[in-house]
Amino acid sequence: MEKKKIVYPYIPNSVEHVKKEMLDEIGVESVEDIIHKIPDDLRVKGLLDLPEPKLSEIEIKMYMEGLLKKNISCSEYTNFLGAGCYNHYVPAVCDEINSRSEFLTAYCGDAYTDHGKSQAIFEFTSLMSELVDMDVVALATYDGSQAVSTSLSMAHRITGRNEFLVPETMNPELLAHFANYTENYASIVKVAYDKKTGKMDLTDLQKKISDKTAAVFVENPSYLGFLQDDAEEIGKIAHAAGALFVVNVDPLSLGSLESPANYGADIVCGDMQCFGIHMGYGSGLTGFIASHQKPEYIMNFPQHLYGLYENEKGEFAFMRSLNDRTSYGTREKANEYLGTNSGLWAITVAVYLSLMGPQGLKELCDNVMYKCQYAMKKLSQIKGVTILFPDNANFKEFVVNFDGCGKKVAKINKKLLENKIFGGKDLSKEFPELGESALYCVTELTSKDDIDRLAKKLAEILA
Amino acid sequence: MQKEIKLRNFHEAKWDEPIVCELSVPGQRGILIPPAEKGIQNEIGDIEKVIPASLKRKKAPNLPEIAQPQVLRHYLRLSQETMGQEIVADIGLGTCTMKYSPKINEQFVRNSKFADLHPLQDDETTQGILEIIYKAEQCLKAISGMDAFSFQPGGGGQAVFSNASVLKAYHTARGEGEQRNEIITTILSHPVNAASPATKGFKVITLMPDPKTGCPSVEALKSVVSEHTAGLFITNPEDTGIFNSQIKEMVDIVHSVGGLCIADQADYNGLFGICRARDAGFDMCHFNLHKSFSSPHGCMGPCCGAQGVKEELAQYLPKPRVKFDGEKYYWDYDGKTSIGKVRKFYGVVATVLRAYAWIMAMGAEGLREVADTAIINNNYLMKKMLTNVKGISAPWQEGEFRMEQVRYSWEKCKEDTGVGTEDIERRAGDYGLQSYFLSHHPWLIAEPMTPEPTEAYSKADLDEYAAIFEKISEEAYSDPELVKNAPYKTAISKVSHPGIDDPNDLIVSWRVYKKKKGLK
């Protein structure tokens, strides 16, 4: 019996008689007549070696959900992981808007057909510019690590210098990205930190800064959670040497903490996943870069800048501007390469900031900071546990050291997992000098009960 | 008998929607945030005293204050002023492979079992997603012939950058990192094939197409390869839809001088089950999972450039990579020779998840059906366009078939009527079409237009599409001003003088607009 030809729901013209009609119109008998010039030795013989398909939606749903069921999410267990991806609350309106077919499926349609998308992107840059208190924000980057690498590359192009001073406590993922991104020219120098506070050692900074320094970079809050409260001083030291001051910030903290722009930063960058985007196993990351309205900065952004224009009717249009900066305009002569990044998340950030307003952000910051101080206090009371850098305020993350109990973080985390708790990120490989330490994170979704239960379980495990 | 095609009397939503900052009413709230529990507050005291004085925000950010229904309504209106892909037949955006993104796959990525996963959770708790990533890799290996994949790059450009990084690491490990400082690409390959290696520090040599074939010539390549050649970054077919039959010869030439060959497979949709990069001798490749593999484009991302390499190069891929020990899936962070990171964590796993579901729904036969239909659709549309539409042509290899897309030219129309491709593109919006892709820069083909009718479009969609351009062409020849002043039925009307040359004139935020206008 002849095998029945499959008709695919996603392929309207997979119906035989339609296909035949189209081939007749083209004037050929088969696809083979169209592609006959492709040499035989380049052709796949037979079918690709792929698993049997789940042709119906019912089967694919059962199959995929069967796989997903094997996961245990942060809504089932209590999460204390952060380190660059955060379990913050996602307002329902954010999901509603980024599920809209128009936004979800649009691509690079122009200022006319995709006017709404273009305006939403302009609103993203406008709202972020208010939050950061800087005039220029470009379209979102792949993630926060790309934002750091591009910000520092901008500093290189602006100053003509190749050396970068970064904190020894820098997020190793950001550092690895930056090292690979600038491998061909950059010299990366680590500045020591104060062992008590975690903060950058300004004496070491003074020693290492020179007329070769393109930028001094800090994270505030730092990767290890503490606040660099003397950041303004660091900016002054950078500027005195003719270097730029580049600050990576948790943008959520700007609801109550000062924008780096107002303590001397020339370029501010960070990751915005915290603004209404699900973690999605790291899929929700998206970066931003902001600067002052200075021509030499503007011309060194490699990404799209959505500028506002007015037509004769007084309508606003939003269009990509100064395109010769980008590789779409000038290929290898551009500032850096540019491709598709994370536009849907930029629009989601705009929705989030519109919902939150200044008051919402402030309250959120207070909530998170309260919980962070409480968790630090609570855990510090457990025998064998030490909170590192205690002489400092922390925003939402902090380092817990277990050297006093002689147990390894990996083992402790396995025990916590048995109690349905995701313990903090194990730092023992990234920062061996910190011993058996873990980076803990709390958010507005962490309750007092969660923290109390963590403390209780830790006390039991370490006893 | 051909049915008569009735063009739509279309009008896009036009809301004259203010900038969101203008909607602010002091005191309104879009969402409330609960305070920390009383027990915590009592324990810690006044939080204001905890914040270091030097870091306390002096002036609250000037964000708008808007109630929830008004926020929702504002962004819904903006969505209505966006055509996107699903409401229209988005045939125009060639090189972008605008195809149907199955709705069921959207349910998977929005499932809490995925959406609420933290990337650093114990592997024991993420076996499902690890299995998906692992199996997606096996599928892509079968589709491309490559031996290993990384899904870490967050887009096509980043995948090319990651390939350039692997290329650099490979030559450096062989002691030729300094010497091999040139890469070769073609002007019709996507700009990132020049720009990503340049960002990595390579010098770029660009080949032009042979004026007859539209493809780079073997002789031109021979004249530029040398002991300085690190690699060839090339697309096949290029954006013209012309398959370069000499590709294997070109790959051999680059190999003969010690260089590697990297295939940009963003334009892959017409090749599923027909050609594999590895069989043509390529050492590396990348696929855009948001294009050929159906994941939605999301207003320009987030997305995934799946980076594939042959066995010898797997050691250089970004880390970590998913491994399987026969019982458990796990992240392998080893890899001393790895280039490190190109994106935080593991990339946009949501896109991998959707792509895997799509591959599993299609199967091997289905993927071949995708390619066959994309090719039929394209050649059918080309026949209609070249037969029925006055003033349009398909330069290079005229009269020959194409793969999955065509770069047309409106040069004749422009000469005859003064109406060029940008005018026609704006006018197309009045008939309910998404704008079309012209060409990457520089324009080698005058007045370009590059549609790509993927397998998602029906014969009726294609007939309507061709009929619209037949109509616009008639308008150009009978009433050129009508087309030149378009659009009339999209969310905004024509902007006569778009673009600025002076960065001081840039208005990229509402606060700058207000400053320039002296508004408060």
List keywords for this structure.
heterodimer; A: 463 residues; alpha/beta; Aspartate Aminotransferase, domain 1; Aspartate Aminotransferase, domain 2; 3 domains; seven-stranded mixed beta sheet; four-stranded antiparallel beta sheet; 37% helix; B: 520 residues; two-stranded antiparallel ribbon; 15 helices; 11 strands; 9% strand; globular
Write structural notes for this entry.
The complex is a heterodimer of chains A (463) and B (520). By secondary structure, chain A is of the alpha/beta class. Chain A folds into 3 domains: 12-60, no CATH class; 78-88 and 358-462, Aspartate Aminotransferase, domain 1; 92-353, Type I PLP-dependent aspartate aminotransferase-like (Major domain) (Aspartate Aminotransferase, domain 2), CATH 3.40.640.10. Helix content of chain A is 37%, strand content 13%. Chain A is built from 15 helices and 15 strands. Chain A has helices spanning 16-26, 31-35, 57-68, 92-99, 101-105, 115-132, 144-159, 172-181, 202-208, 231-240, 295-298, 327-330, 343-380, 409-418, 448-462, and strands at residues 78-79, 136-137, 163-167, 187-191, 213-219, 244-248, 267-271, 287-291, 306-310, 316-320, 386-387, 397-401, 421-422, 425-426, 437-441. In chain A, the strands form 4 sheets. In chain A, strands 2-8-7-6-5-3-4 form a 7-stranded mixed beta sheet, sandwiched between helices. A 4-stranded antiparallel beta sheet of chain A has the order 11-12-15-14, with helices on one face. In chain A, strands 1-13 form a two-stranded parallel sheet. In chain A, strand 9 and strand 10 form a beta hairpin. Chain B is an alpha/beta fold and 520 residues long. Chain B folds into 3 domains: 20-80, no CATH class; 136-360, 3-Layer(aba) Sandwich (Aspartate Aminotransferase, domain 2); 364-484, Aspartate Aminotransferase, domain 1 (Alpha-Beta Complex). Helices cover 35% and strands 9% of the residues of chain B. In chain B, helix 3 runs antiparallel to helix 10 and helix 5 (127-144) runs parallel beside helix 10. The relative contact order of chain B is 0.13.
